[in-house]
Amino acid sequence: MKAALEALKRSRIFRDQSKLSFDYVPDELPGREEQMDALGRLFRPVVYEKMGQHVLIIGPVGSGKTAVVKRFCSHLSEAGMENRRVIEKVHVNCRTRKSESMVMLSILNHFDQRFPDRGFSIPEMLEILKKHLRKREIHLVIILDEADVLLKRAGSDLIYSFTRLQEEDSDLLGSISLILVSQKRVTDLMDPASLSTFKRTNLIDFGRYTKEELEAIVDQRIELSFQPSCVDPGVSDMIASMAEEYGDARFAIELLEKSGMVAEEKGADTVSPEHARFAKADVKPFVFEETIQQINVHEQIMLLAAARLLRRTAYCSTGELEDEYKAICESLNRKGLGHTQFWQYMKELDAFGIFTAKRSGKGTVGNTTLITIQDVPVTELIDYLEKMLFV
Ligand SMILES: Nc1ncnc2c1ncn2[C@@H]1O[C@H](COP(=O)(O)OP(=O)(O)OP(=O)(O)O)[C@@H](O)[C@H]1O
Ligand SMILES: [Mg+2]
After folding, report:
1. Angle at 242 between CA 240 and CA 244, to 5 degrees
2. Which residues have their alpha-adjacent CB atom under 5 A from ion ligand 2?
3. Which residues line ligand 1 (CB under 6 A)?
4. pLDDT tens figures, 63-109
């Protein structure tokens, strides 16, 4: 009971944890300026010329597709207001709204919360949608998120009907826009008629985020959701390189939140790179014992040296590593390796994946090699290796 009360006290680490939730969309989306701009250009005629637009957005998991579309639509509504054009949006997730009628129902619920969920055919529901559009004189942006699920299950008939709606009815001209969002290329799931309305130029491709972009995204969340100066320098760089392989902002944000929770559990005042390692090991466990059994004793000593140096930091230099390695050899009464052999083994350790060597980038003088450990908490490595080496 007491523990629960303690845990319910205001956090020393987090200021506003809700800003780390996946539903929260920040005002600015670092690294997606180009895509926002492209959407802006495509939708200009919607604001100024009573026109509809059809856009296809594709990109891998966590590349910001949903966040960008949501943020963009709020900008679009504002621009519309300034031009006395009411632009509204409905966002339908086709993974949860699996059938054509469930998609139609979500759209009609935008106009009428109490619209019955049974008893109407798709053509009837399309007619009702038209009535709403005529009556309200608005422009409706229909976002079909995870559209590949709908296309695979039901084909492209509904999408075709949306694109044709305004062509058949002159007073509905320019009343609907369609944004399809998907991880996979959906064009091969569409029939030629629907495909022809999605011109090639209306495809916006979201690539994976680069390490720099992920770092900017993590920095923004630190600013929004952590107490001031509560996250050590080096943490966002480390999380960004952990997530770089996937280019996935969702994974980076998850690691950041977990790192904060680990810091809290351990009663720390700040979030450190070691907390980030615990977070990574929790999300994607790395069985380091197996690797350690496969490497030779000098490599084991080098790993222990690196782990000791990295207790409080994200990186150490190879010079520091070599000194620490020699010191451990001495305490073990072992003859240390010569410089060339040392470098050879360092490369081998890198190849094992437990340990990463990288050329230093910005902020350091010259071009030295830096060492980091990302997948395993170094305190766990230290415990394990010390037990093994100091018997
Ligand atoms: N550029 C960005 N700046 C800030 N946060 C971002 C950015 N891109 C993505 N995010 C955040 O990362 C998480 C995942 O983004 P989002 O849901 O938009 O990805 P997605 O491309 O739609 O992925 P999926 O294909 O899995 O649906 C969300 O919490 C989102 O707010
Ligand atoms: Mg999404």
Report:
1. 65
2. 66
3. 22, 25-26, 29-32, 59, 61-67, 183, 217, 220, 249-250, 253
4. 999 999 999 999 999 999 999 999 999 999 999 998 999 999 999 99
Q: How many other CB atoms sit within 10 Å of the CB of residue 306? A: 26
Ligand having the closest approach to the CA of 206? 1
Output the average pLDDT for the chain: 92
What is the per-residue DSSP string for 315-354?
Answer: -EEHHHHHHHHHHHHHHTT-PPPPHHHHHHHHHHHHHHTS
- Nearest ligand to the C-alpha of residue 250? 1
- Measured distance CA(145)–CA(89) in Å, rounded: 12
**Sheet containing strand 369-372, strands side by side:** 316-317, 369-372, 356-359
Ligand index nearest the alpha carbon of residue 65: 1
Distance from chain centroid for Cα 143: 20
**CA 216 – ligand 2 centroid, Å:** 20
DSSP class of 266: T
Q: For residue 18, give every residue at least 6 positions away whose Cβ sits within 8 Å of its Cβ, in sequence order, or none.
A: 24, 225
Structural domains in the chain plus CATH codes: 33-205 (3.40.50.300), 210-283 (1.10.8.60), 288-389 (1.10.10.10)
- Testing ligand 1's pocket by substitution, the residue of 182, 250, 254, 256 carrying the most ligand atoms inside 8 A of its CB is 250
- pTM to 2 decimals? 0.90
3-state SS, residue 232 = coil
Higher-scoring residue by pLDDT: 308, 165: 308
Ligand 1 atom at minimum distance from 249 CA: 12
Say how many CA atoms lie within 13 Å of 277 toward its Cβ. 25
Closest CA to 177 of 229, 218, 230, 141: 141
| Residue-wise pLDDT tens digits, 182-231 | 998 887 788 887 777 776 679 999 999 999 999 999 999 999 999 999 99
Beta-carbon neighbour count of residue 179 at 10 Å? 26
